[in-house]
């Protein structure tokens, strides 16, 4: 059984890591972009970003003044038992969020949508969001915190099957141009695209594609993986670089996730996980040991299963 004390302790550590330490996959992607960028202002911004990340880690200060809106993704093995159950788990994550807001510190960004009141700790009605996933076998919990920008940098459109790949490309480029020209996202960004599902699931797919996939990872469907490569190149061909300046480093990577949708439509969402890419992950085992990493490993074969029953032997054979 996994203790609540260990969950809260680990969650606090993750909040600190996410705000201060850039994930290695994004850092490597940014360095690659900086090595090829030839736009004067874009090159300057990229170099300033890299220096800022080093300073943040050395001084143990948040890498960006806007620390986004903390949220949690929780995945666990099928045999996992939690002291106090899921209610205690959620209470521990809310406590960790509140403590980290004052301790790291994080900017208290959460307010009531109408009255604009707040508790000064990023906790409130529906906040922080906690989303769940499960895997066959094992007794462990993966805690994933993401401090995602909570204003702009996302869009949605209901396309139709007849729009095809070209329609997807048009909306993708429309979104990137709006993000860059109107200052709706801080580039270079990890772009997540959600295709299919219902309207809300489409947005969820795109959001998860942007924050739970690492730079360089590819969809397990080879055709979608080819699209990801093509869309990364396409996004960097529009003449925009870091922070919307002239350049060719708009997109650090492009990740695409899909879900089955209504036969008459093709929902699509586009999300930018900004240049801070605040993400941290840890696995807590039943014996209390904790393993930290930066790859959420969310989109497993099980998460992308396409059958009624889960039979990994048959899935692998296909």
TrEMBL record:
GO terms for molecular function: 4 iron, 4 sulfur cluster binding; lyase activity; metal ion binding. InterPro entries: Class-I_Fumarase/Tartrate_DH, Fe-S_hydro-lyase_TtdA-typ_cat. Keywords: 4Fe-4S, Iron, Iron-sulfur, Lyase, Metal-binding. Pfam families: Fumerase (PF05681). Residues 9-282 form the Fe-S hydro-lyase tartrate dehydratase alpha-type catalytic domain. NCBIfam families: ttdA_fumA_fumB (TIGR00722). Belongs to the class-I fumarase family. This is Fumarate hydratase.
